[in-house]
Amino acid sequence: MTIEAHAVGGLGRRVDLPNLSGVNFGDYGAWTSYRAFGEENAGAAAAAAEAAGLETFWLGGSPRLEAVRPLLEGSENLLVATSVVNIWSSDPADLAREFALLEADFPGRVCVGIGVGHPEATSDYRRPLSALEEFLDGVDAAAVPIPVERRIVAALGRKMLDASWRRSLGTIPYFSSVDHTRAARAAVGPEALVIPEVAYVLDEDLERARATARRYAKVYLGLTNYTNALLAHGFDRADLEDGGSDRLIDHVIPHGGPAEVAARVREHRAAGADHVALQALGADGVPAGEWQALADALA
After folding, report:
1. What is this structure's pTM?
2. Is the N or C terminus of the chain more exposed, i.e. has fewer CB atoms within 10 Å?
3. Phi and psi torsions of 201, nearest 5°
4. How far apart are the C-alpha atoms of 97 and 135, rounded to whole Å?
């Protein structure tokens, strides 16, 4: 498959994606970070996700790529991806080298999610779009580049979404609405991938579930990349106040029983998501039961 690209750095670029079918994310995956369950439990987490029938494991928390190794070792066939390697704390050549080592040991099972993070999170944050393009130019210039079909870009705004389809498989939005998924699909076109993360709470006590969701949402409602995307896709300033309105919390972070949550997750698929990365909230340690219950409801 060939995608005609816009100019990058003054040069026309044509991105060839010859083997998209060889990167199989499946319909649903698990999203979590070592902060949530401990890196020492990586093997158990990978095995639990695989046992639940989830086909991709998304490792969050701005990890180094090499940190996915124990997840690969602890599973048989999982595709393991980062969500995301942060460009401000990574070197393009080092990232490409880490990918080559993992690819040699686990061929076809690694995808590199790459992103710019947030202006509130790093003092180095500057001209994010140009910085991303420069970082990907560095990856492409490495002795053994990361193939375009084995990397994906975190994007929320239109310019970053445009870069995602030109320079990678597509995009992995985080903490976003169904309206954003629909808009992302329109922005990247029919052939690039749209893979939103969806956090959820399996709890049929409405107020308790909302409280769990608000504890999670608090940090993201203080980050402009996320709030700007919410404001652009279905919400207003009042929805961002006091920990998030019920309307925002109920929409962005589905909660209730497995069937209720599954119905909300399917809304992202209907809006154009190729795959949904599922983040279980409220569990202690590896959320094996939460993954299994939702995977069963989605089956």
Report:
1. 0.92
2. C
3. -125, 120
4. 14
Residues with Cβ within 8 Å of 202's Cβ and at least 6 positions away in sequence, in order, are 255, 256, 257, 258, 261, 280, 282, 290, 293, 294
**Structure-block tokens of residue 174:** 């985080």
What is the 3-state composition of the chain as percent helix, strand, coil, each rounded to the nearest 5?
45, 15, 35
For the chain, how long is the longest CA-to-CA vector?
A: 56
* Domains along the chain with CATH numbers: 2-298 (3.20.20.30)
Tokens encoding 283: 């569990």
Contacts of 135 (CB under 8 A, 6+ apart): 87, 90, 92, 114
Average pLDDT in the chain: 92
Q: What's 146's DSSP letter?
A: P
Token pair for 207: 């107020």
Which H or E run contains 217?
A: helix 206-220
Which band of pLDDT confidence, cut at 50, 70 and 90, is reported for residue 17? very low
Omega before residue 252 within 30° of 0, cis: no
**Per-residue pLDDT at 15 exceeds 60:** no
